[in-house]
From TrEMBL:
Residue ranges with Basic and acidic residues bias: 18-31
Signal peptide bounds: none
Protein name: Damage-inducible protein DinB
One protein family per Pfam: MST
Region (Disordered): 1-31
Cross-referenced InterPro entries: DinB/YfiT-like, MST-like
Organism: Promicromonospora iranensis
Length: 192
């Protein structure tokens, strides 16, 4: 199946949308290290939402490259899990918090495997993702900038808070790249 390439942009037809209509362009210019992390996270989170916008449950759950279970819906679920794991389990030291979507050592890919084209599953995924993003944003907003070098425990390792934040930016950047390709396979809409 060949999907026709399309875009909503009129000025730059190889873009997702024109820069004057891109909500990510409105993000402030960061001042300081913490605000830089906050802005990158906002940018990538908004990009994920844009990549999923306008699709129905079946399209969001569509796997692009069988046998992989990677889908846009799976990415939303996975990133909700990642937000919870890093911001609550690790940074806020809540290791016993129940994992989202039934992830476990026996079912490590539940966030992707169980991402099915059911509107209730889609609603649940977005609800969890938005709740975890709000919780992460609230925690980060309250964190004094001088605590970015403080270490937290992950298993037997001690890692600085700033390393976790860089990892979160990297996690989103990688998966938004996946989202570009997944969306283009669904309806031809190109990335930006």
């Amino acid at each position: 199946m060949t999907t026709e390439r399309w875009t909503a942009a009129t000025v730059y037809p190889d873009m997702w949308t024109d820069p004057d209509k891109d909500p990510r362009e409105a993000l402030s210019k960061p001042v300081g290290e913490k605000e830089t992390y906050q802005n990158y996270l906002k940018h990538y989170r908004l990009t994920l939402e844009m990549k999923c916008e306008g699709l129905d449950a079946e399209q969001l759950a569509r796997r692009a490259v069988p046998p992989s279970t990677l889908s846009l819906l799976g990415l939303v679920r996975h990133l909700a899990h990642v937000e919870q794991s890093w911001f609550q389990r690790i940074l806020q030291d809540q290791p016993d918090l129940p994992k989202l979507f039934g992830k476990s050592p026996e079912n490590p890919d539940a966030d992707f495997d169980d991402a099915v084209g059911d509107p209730a599953v889609v609603e649940d995924a977005w609800e969890n993702w938005r709740r975890e993003v709000r919780a992460a944003d609230d925690w980060l907003a309250a964190l004094p900038e001088d605590e970015l070098g403080r270490t937290v425990r992950r298993g037997d390792d001690e890692i600085p808070v700033r390393d976790v934040l860089v990892h979160m930016v990297e996690e989103y950047a990688r998966h938004v790249g996946h989202a570009d390709l997944l969306r283009e396979c669904i309806d031809g809409r190109v990335g930006q």
